Amino acid sequence: MRGDVLKKYFGFSSLRAGQEEVIDRVLAGVNTLAVLPTGGGKSLCYQLPALMMDGLAVVVSPLIALMRDQVEGLVACGVAAVRLDSAATEGEREEVMARVVAGQVKLLYLSPERLADPAMIQRLKGLEVSLVAIDEAHCISEWGHSFRPSYIQLPRVVRLLRPRSVLALTATASPVTAAGIRKGFKILKRDQVQTSFFRENLEFDVTVADESGKRLRLLELLSESGRVPAIVYATRRGDVEEVAAYLSRHGVAARSYHAGMSAAARAEVQDGFLDHQVPVICATIAFGMGVDMPDVRTVVHYHPPKSPEGWIQESGRAGRDGKASHCELLIHGDDRAMLEGMVVAKQPGRRAVEAVIQNVFSQGRSAVVSRYNLSTLNDMPVELLDVMLARLADGGWIVPDGGSWMWCHVVPLRWDAAARERILRGFSQNDRAVLEGVMDSRQRVSLWDLADGSVVKLNKLVALFRELEAGGEVKLKMSHSLAHYRVKNEPEKLRVLVDEVMDVIEEHTNHDVARIRMVFEMAVSRKCIAASLVGYFGEKLPEPCGRCASCLGKARPRKWPRSEVEEVTLEEMEKIQVLVAERRPALSSPHRLARFLCGIYSPAMMRYRLYQHRDWGMLSRLGFDEVLAVAQVKY
What we know:
There is one protein chain. By secondary structure, the protein is an alpha/beta fold. The chain has four domains: 2-194, P-loop containing nucleotide triphosphate hydrolases (Rossmann fold, 3-Layer(aba) Sandwich), CATH 3.40.50; 202-339 and 525-536, Rossmann fold (3-Layer(aba) Sandwich); 350-487, no CATH class; 570-634, no CATH class. It has 27 helices and 17 strands. The chain has a seven-stranded parallel β-sheet with strand order 3-4-2-5-6-1-7, sandwiched between helices. A six-stranded parallel β-sheet has the order 8-13-12-9-11-10, sandwiched between helices. A four-stranded antiparallel β-sheet has the order 14-17-15-16, sandwiched between helices. The protein is globular, with a radius of gyration of 26 Å. The mean pLDDT is 89.
């Protein structure tokens, strides 16, 4: 039967290594962790069992593009699959859920935030759930490279749904991260299926060169026959654009891709690359997640990745069709200073940590948190803010309690008086007054202000607007998500809790720096590069790969070279003094000023668009510690 389903819906006559082992466990009702490398066919591990089991399979993914692509592909094959993401209207959501409740759907794709919504849990609890598949399961670990707080709630939610089996999937899990996933989803170690991370069709090369040497090597490499399509990864947006422009000037058609571009511009570049209209895409790591392109021939890291996970995952986007492909790392001692400086620069000061904690505990028994506001106003990276909130939850201080929205924009499909009366018919006088006021504004309004800062009123308002949208005559756009928490315990001494959180942040900083240093150690080691990379994931190759830079005896310096840089000039010192005198809130501390001078994107820099300032990145040639020392003198 399995072979028939496999052939009928997916067109395959056999399974890849590891897939059969995972699918057998899932069909037997065994909770399973599948650690399959990029391109290893993870999606089939839940799609095939979903079609063979009675009931509904729920697939959890943080990647909207992946959900859309998979649902479209499944529907084209005749599979009853649907998705619910943030782009769906209330009417569309209700239509999808009506099909789900009626038993007309086999696979339901949800974001982790959507699955954790109490209303969604309640509706799914009454159904027969055959399987819950959690993609990108490494996001549950704060020590992984893509921690997402919404994943922390998933084990509790999954238990409430009582599925026949749970399948956690990831392409990048170190032994520590894998142990965290197994613990969260009650998976026995013997039920972790991990195939080899070694891809015999990939050759790993390392070239040690300064900036000009990197560009020459990149141009040489991509000018060779059979080297495109190619992905070139760079760390900073400015570098992405400069490298793409350099290649284009020298006859290699390339486009840039990064998070600073509009969604439409990113989609145009991505589609052009996937359609083979753009041979080379120069990108930050914002590109690649959920993009399945089988014939990428070359992946180049123009700057080294920040971790072994990043190195192997991004390199794994090459050669998914099994044909020989090239993965090259361009690296220099300047890169190490830059990457470690970026990690250290992310550290928030004590004042910022204290401000976040005070915000949470000053609201009484219920706290509403805007991650955007807390992040940008305190210039704290969202990933560190998420770690802080997760630790407060783990420590029993706060309990996640759903979420809502800051802003709401209501757009009636028709504005005439008859349409308005039809839209508002059935609502109470008080509710009509609220809804009319929002519609009359013809712009987004603050739900938080309408609710007078009351969590209870806020939830009622969100429900009211959802009810309005369900009538089908208005479009509703909610924006700026809010996370709700119940405060279980309040700290007797705020200073002690701040100390504990500062220790956690330092621990994470040290962890991130250690992973960067591991990349550099692997890059200069004489040991087989492929063996070093898979060894990070607990795997041992029986013999060296025979094709990497180390195996071919390519010489690399043991000590990392550094470029000589100019010291800070008197003119630059005067400009810094002017910046300090302007007393901008986003530059209100030595750390913030140093980030600005180094050209390091941070939440405050983005909120106030300081990256457009003429002096942005003025001292980017120097290490962060050096620039911080200058900034401290000026303060």
